[in-house]
Amino acid sequence: MTTEGGTIMAEQAVASGNAGSAGSAGSAGSAGRAGRAGRIRRPEGPGKVAIAGLGLLLPGGVLILWQMLSHYGMISAMLFPAPYTIAQSFITLASSGELWINLRVSALRTLSGFLLGGGLGLLLGIVVGLFRRSEKLLNPSLQMIRMIPSLAVVPLFILWFGIGEESKVLLIAKSAFFPLYIHTFMGIRGTDNKLFEVARVLGFSRRQQILRLVLPAAVPSIMLGVRLSLGLAWLGLVVAELIASTSGIGYMMSDARQFADTPVVFVGIIVFAAAGLLTDTMVRLVERRLLRWQDSYQG
User: Fold this and answer.
1) Dihedrals phi, psi of 218, to nearest 5 degrees
2) Can you say how many angstroms the Cα of residue 200 is from the centroid of all Cα atoms in its chain?
3) 212-226 pLDDT tens trace
4) Backbone dihedral region for residue 15 (phi beyond 0: left; psi -120 to 50: alpha; all else: beta)
């Protein structure tokens, strides 16, 4: 009797073990199928080449349409020269070296004006953003200066500094100053106040709060200000070189306008657009590296 009972209990244990193994295997199989299903359902986005091709679709279509209209004489060749004619002018200017000389001068002016204006904008934006007394002292005057158009101060800059490099660099600096100043100020003031409470609990000094809390939190807004400041720096360069200059891309365009050399004018426009796009792309790469911790929506 005892032997038969032990046999029955052993058979029940084996059956329970088989059932548990089957359940575990079933759970593992379900989990595996769920994981595979999740991987299968995840949509694959377009590749980098496809995205780049999508960005070239619109300008490429415009160029083809433009070339066709010029070829069949449906638009004025003087006002809208064919893209092929503009490309020939670009090759001529590039091979003679005139384009690169003027581009180097314009790039140096833009960089100098951006470093001067953007650097002051970043510094004052930090000071005004951190200290309310500085805001009351400086912000009203800076906002009044911001409302003055750049063209309105060109005669004054020429009277003060002449038509040399100083007036051009200062005009570019004025254009680059305010976007970085405003976005730095807004980035600091937009920091969550609860983070300051946590910093006080952790015993952070004022310097640690600025370096480890305020500035990292304001980086997204500051980088947006850098991008806008660079764009306005190139815009200020155009204004400075078209009004009073003897070198640079703007001067090359102004000189071509006097001789009705429209293709050269279009070459200057394309160079400005390409230079602005290149600098903006470089800033975006730096921004992506600095903000790699940020889990933002990518579309």
Assistant:
1) -90, -5
2) 34
3) 888 888 999 999 999
4) alpha
